[in-house]
Specification:
single chain, 484 residues, alpha/beta, Aldehyde Dehydrogenase, Chain A, domain 1, 2 domains, 6-stranded mixed beta sheet, 23 strands, 39% helix, binds nicotinamide-adenine-dinucleotide
Length: 484
């Protein structure tokens, strides 16, 4: 059985307590590898290694830090197939998606921040003829990076890249459900000659390995992506220690389709936004509001396009719907499908487990892409994050009404608005309470833009300059001008 190891001070090691956790392949429901069941002892060692590495790494010229990061990116790219396969087995996502989107985006994260650190400028403010203020930005020390299971390598590198580019060292705690690509990343960092201790990766459960990282006194910076409840636990646990926190959390994102939208693009993109990665992307649009005149035709086309999705073994090239990540998550999503029925919804597509899966996948965690209509806009299914392949479609009449409904959840991560009326696009985008609004598109990313959520979707922003600022501490130096 394959063993995943911690990466501490440049070495691949077991947990100090010798404990292991099972790692289940979602497509088969079977244990296929083991990961260390780490605890505070391993976190202690990892933080000590990161602390020791900090003076050397923060003093390393930016161009050299960038060279090593580019080398790591090149190695991942050269080994794309192994990473994509590992990602698919670990998460249940189709291998084509891992190969085309997730692994290349992880490579881009490393390259982007390797480039960014060589092109940053700091500010200067001249106070008339009295003084020159200039701003130094120094790395903050050891960063604690906690990431979820849905896009494991992409979201891990989204944090690691800006943290180490700016000269911090890091201790990462990837999700216990999907540790494999983090393990491959550790091997790649070692092979690329990343100095020991710059990046440490400790595997294990949130409560045993994640919690001691967040409260460690030598870790002043915490970047977390995951569920809102966990974000709240971390915020509470760190409240009196004045750490710098970025919390990227859940979403319940609206897709708003006006009757004048180009339906040839809107329908397939809304299907993609609903069911990519089995609906397990924080940015998925799981509430679709369609203007009444276009509603019936939209629903027909949406249901038909959903029926064209190919569900099957994630390792097959033709599959575009794989398994959800775990049995617990399967039960949660199926529970929401039952709730949709109780709340008065009609299931127009899916609603169950698929038939006709290959033998290998008989015990896997597969759920059909599910389309629900007829639900009230304010019911639980339309307000709570399901994070699975379940989408609700509702009609609306007026612009004000749909904005109110779109904003009716506690979340505010992203939205997608479809209209050919440019004034309306600006108006609606401005009024929807979310960190990102896509107009006539979904999931287009520019790594320079601020990324994050409003309300219970997040605190702080990642991406581009926001990330460089997050991982550094600004210091103003005020220099008096003049001779006396
Ligand atoms: P989760 O909150 O259960 O776990 C996330 C990470 O936190 C894991 O590594 C886990 O081990 C760790 N953790 C758990 N308890 C902890 C504790 N007490 N202290 C420290 N660490 C702890 O989330 P998940 O189920 O892995 O991911 C799904 C969630 O992530 C969804 O809500 C999704 O919307 C969200 N998400 C958000 C974004 C975003 O950018 N906003 C991106 C992807 C996923």
């Amino acid at each position: 059985m394959q063993r995943i190891l911690n990466y501490i001070d440049g070495e691949l090691v077991e947990a100090a307590n010798g404990g292991w956790l099972d790692n289940v392949e979602p497509a088969t429901g079977k244990v296929y590898s083991r990961l260390p069941d780490s605890d505070e002892t391993d976190i202690e060692k990892a933080v000590a290694a990161a602390k020791q590495a900090f003076p050397g790494w923060s003093g390393t010229p930016a161009v050299e830090r960038a060279r090593i990061m580019d080398d790591i990116a090149d190695r991942i790219e050269a080994d794309l197939e192994s990473f994509a396969r590992a990602e698919s087995i670990d998460t249940g996502k189709p291998i084509g998606l891992a190969r085309k989107v997730e692994i290349p985006r992880a490579v881009s994260n490393l390259r982007f921040f390797a480039g960014a650190i060589q092109h940053t400028a700091s500010e200067a403010h001249v106070t008339d003829d009295q003084a020159l203020n200039y701003t130094l930005r120094r790395p903050r020390g050891v960063a604690g990076l906690i990431s979820p299971w849905n896009l494991p390598l992409y979201l891990l590198t989204w944090k690691v890249a800006p943290a180490i580019a700016t000269g911090n060292t890091a201790v990462a705690k990837p999700s216990e459900l999907t540790p494999m690509t983090a393990h491959l990343l550790a091997q790649t960092c070692r092979d690329a000659g990343l100095p020991p201790g710059v990046l440490n990766i400790v595997h294990g459960l949130g409560a045993r390995a994640g919690a001691p990282l967040t409260t460690h006194p030598d870790v002043p910076t915490i970047s977390f992506t995951g569920g809102t409840a966990t974000g709240g636990t971390i915020a509470a646990a760190t409240a009196t220690s004045f750490k710098k926190l970025a919390l990227e959390m859940g979403g319940k994102n609206p897709t708003v389709v006006f009757a004048d939208a180009d339906m040839d693009v809107a329908v397939p993109t809304a299907v993609q936004a609903s069911f990519s990665n089995q609906g397990q992307i924080c940015l998925c649009g799981s509430r679709i509001f369609v203007q009444r005149d276009a509603y019936d035709a939209f629903v027909d086309r949406f249901v038909s396009a959903t029926g064209d999705l190919v569900q099957g073994d994630p390792l097959e090239e033709t599959t575009n719907q794989g398994a959800v990540v775990s049995k617990a998550h399967f039960d949660k999503v199926m529970g929401y499908i039952d709730l949709a029925k109780e709340e008065g919804g009609t299931i127009l597509a899916g609603g169950s487990t698929p038939s006709g899966l290959p033998d290998r996948c008989r015990e896997g965690f597969f759920i059909e892409p599910t389309v629900v209509t007829g639900l009230p806009h304010d019911c639980r299914v339309n307000r709570e994050e399901i994070f699975g392949p379940v989408t609700s479609i509702m009609p609306f009449d007026a612009e004000d009404e749909v904005i109110e409904w779109a904003n009716e959840t506690d979340y505010g991560l992203s939205a997608s608005v479809w209209t050919q009326d440019v004034s309306r696009a600006h108006r609606v985008a401005e009024r929807i309470a979310s960190g990102t609004v896509w107009v006539n598109c979904w999931l287009l990313r520019d790594l320079r833009v601020p990324f994050g959520g409003m309300k219970q979707s997040g605190v702080g922003r990642e991406g581009g300059d926001e990330a460089l600022r997050f991982f550094t501490e600004p210091k103003n130096v005020c220099l008096r001008l003049g001779s006396s």
